[in-house]
Write a structure and sequence with these properties.
Order of helices and strands: EEEEHHHHEEEHEHEHEHEEHEH
CATH class of the largest domain: Alpha Beta
Strand order of the largest sheet: 9-8-7-10-11
Number of strands: 13
Largest sheet: 5 strands, parallel
Number of domains: 2
CATH architecture of the largest domain: 3-Layer(aba) Sandwich
Helix content: 40-55%
CATH topology of the largest domain: Aldehyde Dehydrogenase, Chain A, domain 1
Structural class: alpha/beta
Distance between the termini: 40 Å
């Protein structure tokens, strides 16, 4: 049985303990995932802290070039990672599934790598010139969810390292394997310590967000956990980025051809098996179109 490992300081770390991950479709074992302890969290943050100092000194163009290489790594390994996501998380390979997620990862890596972020003059007159310079914050704690495990992790990782930060990433304890493999592959082109992982349940996430050497926290997940992270950041004054779900509506305007939009309504609600924050939760429909809107998407499910 394969045992997957965290990446810390550019190397695969021996786990303190591990737990088994199963394919949700058939119950088959996918292998053993590492379970971090407090010491491993400290080691990962320390590695990121040391690496960040030198990473921030790299020229902006050099960091952009390296992030372009990350995109290439993701592209070259997209099928391998997509198959892992499907076996571990359960979404289909095709359609708006795992292959879609990996191509999104590539795109969301290429765009920040292509961005030019020169100093910006925000005010100037005869007496004063104010210039905005973007500088790294330091070490970023990133906690990713299980529904889009790689894409949302990329949203957290890439802008952070592009700007000269280092990252300690904790994937969901339900879907760690694909993320660990993605980070292992990315580390082929990153300086050691710029991107590290820790794994485990919410207790490990709490140790990470409460760590005194964390300079920013990024989290996607539940509102309950988000509140705890706000409390942790209030003590350290670390800036936070939280995405805690959605409450999305669709509006069907009077006179719309319902047959033309039935598939869009269906996939808007059931993208990723309906396990997506931006999925349609409710519909606003004119009473004259109510019956058609109720029946057409249902007919689509029978195809």
């Amino acid at each position: 049985m394969q045992t997957y490992r965290n990446t810390v300081n550019g190397t695969l770390a021996e786990p303190a303990s591990s737990y088994e991950i199963f394919n949700p479709a058939n119950g088959q074992s996918l292998g053993m995932a590492p379970k971090s302890d407090e010491l491993e969290v400290d080691r990962a943050v320390q590695s990121a802290t040391l690496a960040q100092k030198s990473w921030a000194k790299h020229g902006d163009q050099e960091r952009r070039d390296i992030v372009h290489k990350v995109a290439q790594i993701l592209e070259e390994n997209s099928e391998y990672l997509a198959e892992l996501v499907t076996r571990e998380q359960g979404k289909p390979l095709s359609g708006p599934g795992s292959r879609f997620e990996l191509q999104a990862c590539v795109g969301w890596t290429q765009v920040p790598a292509s961005l030019e972020l020169p100093p910006e003059v925000v005010y100037e007159d005869d007496e004063r010139r104010d210039t905005l310079h973007r500088v790294p914050l330091g070490v970023v704690a990133a906690i990713a969810p299980w529904n889009w495990p790689l894409m949302i992790a990329i949203w957290q990782i890439i802008p952070a390292i592009r700007m000269g930060n280092a990252v300690v990433l904790k994937p969901s304890e339900y879907t760690p394997i694909a993320t660990l493999e993605m980070v292992r592959l990315i580390n082929q082109v990153l300086p050691a310590g710029v991107l590290n992982t820790v794994t485990g349940d919410g207790t490990i996430g709490s140790k990470l967000t409460h760590h005194p050497d964390i300079n920013k926290i990024m989290f996607t997940g539940s509102e309950t956990t988000g509140r705890r992270i706000i409390e942790a950041s209030a003590k350290s004054l670390s800036p936070i980025t939280l995405e805690l779900g959605g409450n999305d509506a669709a509006i069907v305007l009077p006179g719309t051809n319902i047959k033309d939009i039935a598939t869009d309504l269906f996939w808007g609600a059931f993208l990723n098996m309906g396990q997506t924050c931006a999925c349609i939760k409710r519909l606003y429909v004119h009473e004259d179109d109510y019956e058609a809107v109720m029946s057409e998407p249902v007919s689509y499910t029978h195809l």
